[in-house]
Amino acid sequence: MSQAANNQILTTDGIPLKVSLKKAERKNKIRAFTLVLPLLLFILITFVFPIFNMLARSVDDKQINTVFPKTFEIYKKWDQSDLPSEEMYATLFNEVITADGRQIGKASTRMNYSKSGWKSLIKKSKRQFKKIKEGPYKEKMIAIDKRWANIEYWKALGQMVDPYTMGYYLNAVDLTYDSNKKIIQQPEKRRIYNSTWWLTFEVSVLVTLFCLILGYPISYLLATLPLKFSNLLMICVLLPFWTSLLVRTVSWIVILMQKGIFNSILVWAGIIADENRMQLIYNKTGTLIAMTQILLPFMVLPLYSVMKTISPTYMRAALNLGAQPMHAFYKIYMPQTIPGISAGGLLVFVLAIGYFITPELVGGSEGLLIGHFIAYHLKTTLNWGLCSALGAILLAVMLVLYWAYNKIVGIENIKLG
C-alpha cells in the first residue's frame, strides 16, 4: 500500500497529481458557472418564470374555491333538479358576508366568466345582505334579486367546483363544461376562437409565402449586383427598421383607405370608377398587405446572407455544360439557398403568428388575429386564465411546428451565412 502511494506522481506541494487536477477542474467549472450565472438568472427571470406562471394561471381556479369552500362542498351533494336547499343559500350568504371586498371581487369576476350577471348580482347583494340579521335566507335573498331564484346561475357554479380546471383551454377552442363537468360546445354566439385560430394560421402562412416571393428576387439582386448598387438597395431594405412600426402601420391606412392614395391613383388613371373604389383596409386584405411589407426584411436578410456565400462559378459551370438558365437556377442555385429560405420562413412565420399591433389597426373585425384576444383578456376583461390558455396553446403549436420542422428540414440546416 505504501509502495503504491510512493509510486504516485506528486506536485511541488506534495499533493497527488490526480487530486490536484480534480481540484483545478472543479475550480474551472465553478469559475465558468459564475461567469454564466448572470445570464442564467436573466433567462430564468425574463423567460422561464413568466412561461411557468402563464401555464400555472391557465389551470388555476383557486381564486373562487378559497372564497366559497363550504358552498362548493354542499354543491357537490345537490341533485340540480330544483333550486338549492336553504342550507346552500345560508352558506353562500355567510361566505359572502365574511369575505373581504377584494376576495369577493375576484371571485365574482371569475363567476361572471361562467355565467354573465354573477358579478353584478354579488355586488348588489353584498350591500343588501348587511340588513339581514337571521334566516330563512332563501326567501330573503330572492326578495333582494330575482336572479337568486334562477337555477341556471346555481348550475354555473359547477364549472368552478375544482381548484384546478381545464375550462380555460376548453374556452379557447369554443368548448366549455356544463354543470356536471361534461364537455359541451359553447353557445353559437360565443364561438369565436376556432375561426380566429384558423385565420391566424392562414394569415401567417400567406404572409410567409408573400415575403418569400417578394424577398427572393430582392435578395438575389443584393447578392449579385455591383457593390454600389447593392448597398443602395440594402439601405432601402433596412429603411423600415429606422421608422416606427406605428408610423408604418398608419401609413398603410392612409394608402389603402377608399379615399386613400392607391384608390385615388387608380381612379385618376381611369382603371376603376370613382364609385367602385376598392375596400383594402379593415379586412384580411389590409392585414396581409401591411404585415407582408413590415416583415419582408426578416425574409430578405437571411436569404441575402446565404446567397452572398454562393459562388457564381457554379451557375457558370452549369451553363457551360449546356444547361438552360432556368434549369440551372432550379437545380444548382436554389438548393443552395434552402438554409436561407428555412431561416427566413421560420422567422417570419413566428413573428406573424403572434402579431398584434398591425392587425389591430388595419384588420378591422375581419382581420383580427389571436393576439388581439390575448391582449383583450389581459387588459380589458382581466380574464387571465383564458389569456394564459390562449398563450399556452400558441406556445404548444409553435413547439409542435418547430419539432416537425426539425424532423423534415433539420434545425442544423438553418444558416445565416
Order of helices and strands: HHHHHHHHHHEEHHHHHHHHHHH
What class would the helix/strand composition place it in? mainly alpha
- Which of globular, elongated, flat, extended, rod-shaped describes the shape? flat
Q: Kindly report the name of the CATH homologous superfamily of the largest domain.
A: MetI-like
CATH class of the largest domain: Mainly Alpha
- What CATH architecture label of the largest domain applies? Orthogonal Bundle
What count of helical segments does DSSP give? 21
Largest sheet: 2 strands, antiparallel
Task: Estimate the strand proportion.
Answer: under 5%
Task: Give an overview in words.
The protein is mostly helical and 417 residues long. The chain has helices spanning 2-6, 17-57, 62-65, 69-75, 86-98, 101-114, 118-129, 137-144, 151-156, 167-171, 193-224, 227-238, 245-256, 261-268, 284-307, 313-320, 325-336, 338-353, 357-362, 370-381, 384-408, and strands spanning 175-177, 183-185. α15 runs antiparallel to α18 and α16 (313-320) packs antiparallel against α17 (325-336).
List keywords for this structure.
disordered N terminus; 417 residues; MetI-like fold; 3 domains; two-stranded antiparallel ribbon; 2 strands; mainly alpha
Layout of SSEs?
Elements: H1 2-6, H2 17-57, H3 62-65, H4 69-75, H5 86-98, H6 101-114, H7 118-129, H8 137-144, H9 151-156, H10 167-171, E1 175-177, E2 183-185, H11 193-224, H12 227-238, H13 245-256, H14 261-268, H15 284-307, H16 313-320, H17 325-336, H18 338-353, H19 357-362, H20 370-381, H21 384-408
Helix pairs in contact: 2-21, 4-5, 6-7, 11-12, 11-15, 11-18, 13-15, 15-18, 16-17, 20-21
